[in-house]
Specification:
heterodimer, A: 287 residues, alpha/beta, Rossmann fold, Alpha-Beta Plaits, 2 domains, nine-stranded mixed sheet, two-stranded antiparallel ribbon, 11 strands, B: 286 residues, 10 helices, elongated
Chain lengths: 287, 286
């Protein structure tokens, strides 16, 4: 079963929920946690484990071989991403813009743009008791998160059986990286905060998940601050509010040091138990 | 013209609250641009009155004309994104998987595949309560490629600033280090990094600054919630000194940020102490 933990707005506590939930669930059964926020992955700062495997991740990009090139410009014509430009006597490739579609390469009449691997990031697989943690990090300057997210999900899918519980810490926002991280999930947990920013971005996230036909549950973080409009919205839309993590400066302090919160806060543990219940109920529905 | 871009790497550090406060200080001298189009929130603090709205098209989606299709399957073979499966005898494009590269359309022997330009949202110019205008956008639900919409918002802000003779463009940037941030940063004259003293805050600050460095843009930093972890705050200040990043100031953990937000106000309209602090930061920027 695949569970994505997402949020429209950044900084609402996605990573806090993902890491605490993973550690809490791992006490009883094996869990996989994957950090798909490859632009700014933070889960690893809260999870300790031994490095089991580390590998560079590649995307395929065309590389110009000038020998046989007749400078016909077909490559530039077929590229929809402006990643291949024909200059006077030169073909230039902009790897950050390339989507690895192979069109320029395979449609080149002289085979002058063979595809070559280019490193885009690094995947690290950690192991702790009952917990496999996988993190991918995009190299700075690489603009596209989606290929790395996709390959990270593939790594997890290939390695673990489908019945094991997998948590995916997703990127913030609502555009392509989030779609990639959530489109194959069985359940999406949306973490929000009870403020106008939280509500505004929650609404967009809910609409996006509706487009994807996803079952969602909401977790309200920093509960007690702000106003009651998030709860009102969820009630109106019939979206279950699964858990409410209290607003507390001490929680922010523990978080700032990279510590798991539920170990020192029984009230947070109670909320994690509610999330577990929700997941178990849904798991029966799925199977 | 000076273009100031506020970014944070990590979300939830107070970036938008601080940018909106700068909009207050900038007043009629500045044009405001909300480039965090994925989760555009600044309008909730600035109460814009819409003056203009335009649709924005970017990227493509393949569409197969079933009447022309001879089911040769070439499109499905060449698609690297597995987005054209055969379902009940018909080749169908899965919109969520299609990257819009157009390879299928290039190779189709019957010209049966049309690449349709996608409406990814709209961009707007609005009057805000501080006597100036802001350019902002609504990204469509599940829409692709906010990088191009970000670039559009910035360009329109620049045009508007030139037209109205404004000295400053103030940009609320996007989180992360990918295409939307790259678009937010291009052309900036100064970057304000908003961070918090937590393991994640520092981690994300360092990564996003690595990106800023690639652009060679001078930067300054504001540490929000500074008293939540004094040791980490020290660590950040040390990092700033090593990297020659201007330390603009620090703000203590304060739930007034949320109270102001809930009241639909910027923090400077709500809390005089923070107003004085941010005013000092703003003076260093202009």
């Amino acid at each position: 079963m695949k569970i994505a933990i997402a949020s429209g707005k950044g900084g609402t506590g996605k990573t806090t929920v993902a890491t605490n939930l993973a550690a809490f669930l791992a006490v009883e059964s094996p869990i996989v946690l994957a950090d798909l926020d490859v632009e700014e992955p933070n889960s690893g700062l809260f999870i300790s484990g031994k490095i089991f495997k580390q590998k560079d991740m590649f995307k395929m990009i065309p590389e110009w071989v000038k020998e046989d090139c007749i400078l016909c410009g077909n490559c530039q014509k077929v590229c929809n991403f402006n990643a291949v430009i024909k200059l006077d006597k030169l073909i230039m490739v902009f790897p950050e813009l390339c989507h690895s579609c192979y069109a320029c390469s395979e449609l080149c009449p002289t085979k002058s743009l063979p595809m070559q691997p280019r490193i885009m990031g690094k995947l690290t697989h950690f192991k702790a008791i009952n917990l496999d943690f996988i993190e991918s990090k995009l190299i700075i300057g690489e603009e596209q998160a989606v290929p790395l997210i996709k390959q990270t999900i593939d790594y997890v899918s290939d390695l673990f059986p489908s019945d094991i519980l997998k948590l995916f810490d997703s990127p913030p926002g609502t555009s392509c990286p989030v779609i990639e991280a959530t489109k194959n999930a069985d359940l999406v947990l949306l973490v929000t905060e009870p403020t106008p920013f939280g509500l505004h971005d929650l609404k967009i996230a809910v609409e996006t998940m509706k487009e994807l036909n996803k079952k969602v549950g909401v977790i309200i973080n920093r509960f007690g601050i702000g106003d009651a409009n998030v709860e009102k919205y969820c009630a109106e839309k019939n979206i279950p509010v699964i858990a409410k993590i209290p607003n507390n400066r001490k929680i922010a302090e523990l978080y700032s040091r990279g510590e798991l919160v539920y170990l020192s806060f029984p009230e947070v543990k109670t909320e994690l138990e509610k999330i577990r219940e929700f997941i178990l109920e849904h798991r029966q529905e799925v199977s | 013209m000076k273009e100031i871009v506020v970014i944070s790497g990590k979300g939830g550090t107070g970036k938008t609250s601080i940018t909106a406060s700068f909009a207050y200080f900038g007043g009629k001298d500045a044009i405001i641009a909300d480039c965090d189009v994925d989760a555009a929130d600044m309008h909730l603090l600035l109460q814009p009155q819409q003056l203009k709205s335009e649709e924005f098209y970017s990227g493509f989606l393949a569409e197969i004309d079933q009447n022309k299709c001879i089911k040769c399957g070439r499109c499905s073979e060449v698609c690297r994104f597995d987005s054209i499966p055969i379902i009940e005898g018909k080749y169908i494009v899965k919109p969520l998987d299609c990257e819009g590269c157009g390879y299928c359309s290039q190779i189709c022997p019957k010209d049966a595949i049309l690449m349709k330009e996608q409406n990814v949202g709209n961009w707007l110019i609005s009057q805000i309560k501080f006597g100036t205008k802001m350019v902002h956008a609504n990204l469509g639900i599940g829409a692709d490629n906010s990088g191009k919409l970000v670039a559009k918002v910035k360009n329109e802000a620049k045009k508007l600033a030139e037209k109205e003779g404004k000295k400053i463009i103030l940009v609320d940037g996007s989180p992360g280090v990918g295409c939307p941030v790259v678009s937010s940063l291009s052309g900036a004259s100064y970057v304000v990094l908003v961070t918090e003293p937590s393991v994640s805050g520092i981690h994300d600050l360092k990564r996003v600054y690595e990106l800023v460095k690639k652009f060679g843009i001078p930067a300054g930093c504001i540490i929000n919630k500074a008293d939540i972890n004094l040791q980490k705050t020290e660590e950040i200040i040390k990092f700033l000194a090593e990297e020659n990043i201007e330390f603009l100031g620090s703000i203590s953990y304060n739930e007034d940020f949320t109270r102001a937000l809930t009241a639909g106000k910027t923090i400077v309209e709500f809390d005089d102490k923070i107003k004085a602090l941010l005013k000092e930061c703003w003076k260093k920027l202009i």
